[in-house]
Amino acid sequence: MLNVHSIESLGTFDGPGIRLVFFLQGCNFKCLYCANPDTIAFEGGNPYATEDLVAMARRQQPFFGKKGGITVSGGEPLIQAKGLIELFKALKEAGFHTCIDTNGSLLNDDVKELLDYTDLVLLDIKQAQEERHRKLTGRSNARTLAFADYLAQRGKATWIRYVLVPGYSDAEEDLHALGQRIKDMHNVEKLEIQPYHKLGVHKYASLGWEYALSDVPANTAEALLKAKALFQAYVPEVVIN
Amino acid sequence: MCDASARTKHLWQLCLTAISEERANNGVLGIDNEVVSGITSHGPGYIDQEHELIVGLQTDQLLKRAMKPYGGIAVVEKACQEHGLEVSDRVKDIFNNYAKTHNDGVFDVYTPEIRLFRSLGILTGLPDNYARGRIIGDYRRVALYGTDRLIEAKKLDMLGLIGPMTDERIRLREEVAEQIKALGQLRELGAIYGLDLSRPAQSAQEAVQWVYLSYLAAVKEQDGAAMSLGNVSSFLDIYMEHDLQLGLIDENYAQELIDQFVMKLRMVRHLRMDAYNEIFAGDPTWVTEAIGGRLADGRHKVTKTSFRFLQTLYNLGPSPEPNMTILWSNSLPEGFKKFCAQVSIDTSSIQYENDDLMQCTRNSDDYGIACCVSFQEIGKQIQFFGARTNLAKTLLLAINGGRCEMTGKQVLHNIPELKSDLLDLEEVMSNFRLAMKEVGRVYNDAMNIIHYMHDKYYYEKLQMALVDTNPKVNLAYGAAGLSIVADSLSAIKHAKVQVVRNEAGISTDFKIEGDFPCYGNDDDRVDVFAKEIPAYFNKLLKKLPTYKNAEPTLSILTITSNVVYGKKTGATPDGRAQGVAFAPGANPMHGRDKSGALASLSSVAKIDYKDSLDGISNTFSIVPKTLGADMEQRKENLVSIMDGYFSKDAHHLNVNVLNREMLEDAMEHPENYPQLTIRVSGYAVNFVRLTRAQQQDVIARSFFETI
Q: Model-level pTM?
């Protein structure tokens, strides 16, 4: 049983090819720019049985082509690692490509077992610099970086995702710090730059929350291209999502 | 692939100028109000003769429209008056006092019941005051054989049509006699342009020219709602390949021929009255060309000329016509599939149909698409078009004891009043089945009358001359409002629905307590209704007698009439308010498909093609970014979507890859978007030619977006 916030049948930005994306409810981070603040609370969401989610994947299988598959995102999916083990086991038995989109803050035995059934990890590193990470998420980045090391050690295929927030994570030293941190990780296939946007801001109002970054502008095209060029020195493939 | 040649660009510029004058002049550039249109009615017409490789216009002037009063003189008079003209006295005299029209015939015979159904909007858009169209001549035959041999063959058929002289045989003999005359006129049309169509085409240029003049003859004789071209592109490729291999032509010239052919097809116009725009918006002609697909032995039919046709959307810019329809099979060459996806992403001008499904269900690998979505074996089969009935309104008849919810008029007489206003699924379904049976019966009466009269007064002699004598006929019924019916039944089953009635006891609203699953989320609890209702209605229709022993088929298609259907339908048990537009075709109701695009497609794919053999139309709009981060990913993902959708045995997909903001801007600044093309239920239109209500409807529909 998993607590699901919502399901997107046509995911094209959460792993290779066309993805069926399960957004799980609940997150242990509260990033200032979160585009899905309605997934943060642990209450709410709808319970789904593993077999129903597998059935959904089977129904959608014809759309997956050669690359597509299932991605769990959130919220923070690893909080429900136990339930995910059951789901991913079943999905792997049925031959699906599996992918987790995570902030990498949890690494326990369940998570380690879950990774046995995971083909690809999308690891969101919010900031490589500790102080600035705290400012952005209210937390240390130590666990996330340790998680990255663990993935490297296991040789688990990984895409790094990095939200480029003007003023918060787009300084040159921010980018170099991240590049330095991941340049020797041979399991990292790709780095995805996620442009900062405010498309989720209306959700803050309906939650009665304040949006702290209302003065932050969207990225300029030049800034995105510059970041891309900078990262290319460290990672084989860099894309702007 | 080659760009447009200088000649082509020059001609297209003249066309664009004429089109913008047309738009500035209330949508009509000119009308010939003297001459009744026919195959040989007008002298030659040119855009700029010395630059034209493919010649022929409907009248003597580009975009000048001609009168075809055999469908109905009143309609022609009204269309002229709406543009400040009067039909000439001579033509008025002939058609009001001497000649009888299709429209006269139908209304002489219509029963009071049919008239009531029409006026209340239970049956809408019937071809009783305009030409039925949907018949596809095999225009390839003229290039292949020339008119002389075709005439000989028809004469031979005639010799075989001997006694006993029953109604059927007499009628058929007269029809073949008409066809022979039409072939003679086609030859004459060639002569008007200095061409000898009596013999087969002997070059690529002649093949294209012969095919085009045959099609032109058809649109000079008839103004059918949809007059498809068929599947000529890969046929023409044989001539192209021959001439290319002999070094007689080069690729530039081959592309030029197709560009100029397509340009001419884009210039086809019919004279319509304004009211026609409500059901078929944007002045469509449905010059539908089927491209791709496979042969029965598994070889694909993709040729260089398939690519050349698609390339015209770049060389001449996007356009609704010709209505290019890709016959999709998962085993088509990857390169072609990706090119199609690219064309969709760049132009939103093409649609897709499931070749694997149609080929195995209908047993032919040589077919075209009549109008929007309907299979038609070329040269062997025709169809009688019948617009559609309103199933959502039929459901309301079931809830209101057979009375119309908008007027209170008693329409059906065998529907019991409901025992309780808290709707019970069994009771509603039982009434709904009775109502569908009655509606089907009246619809069938109307269809038989319409097609009897159309044959009698406005027979498509040229198109039928290019079809085998005595072909198979489909009687093409249609249904609208499927998603509303499915969601209404789901609400009744899974939530509590209470009828709110006025003092006369007619439903005015529905109070819904609780949640219910909606069609469009790949949820069997509701999708089962979307599957079962067409199956049931189709079964009812199949029991009824048909004119010319036509085989009944059903479509789930609305064209743009979903807006006017909405206006004529009261509040429904799914929570839809009175007057709100229906979803088009088989689409889920906008805003209710909340699980993303693929869940929506999966729901539609559940409707069984065997129950709706005339076609199941689905229109899919997506913003470019949702398809992927870059062009390569977008193409790949769109191909995967199509492969997935069609491998689920879905039938049809319109693909729009557009931003909502662009459409909103086009509403405000139409002058900046003269060629903006979007797909609506089964065809494409120039967005700026839609009415404001229709534009708003398009924008309101589900655009699949992810954040």
A: 0.94
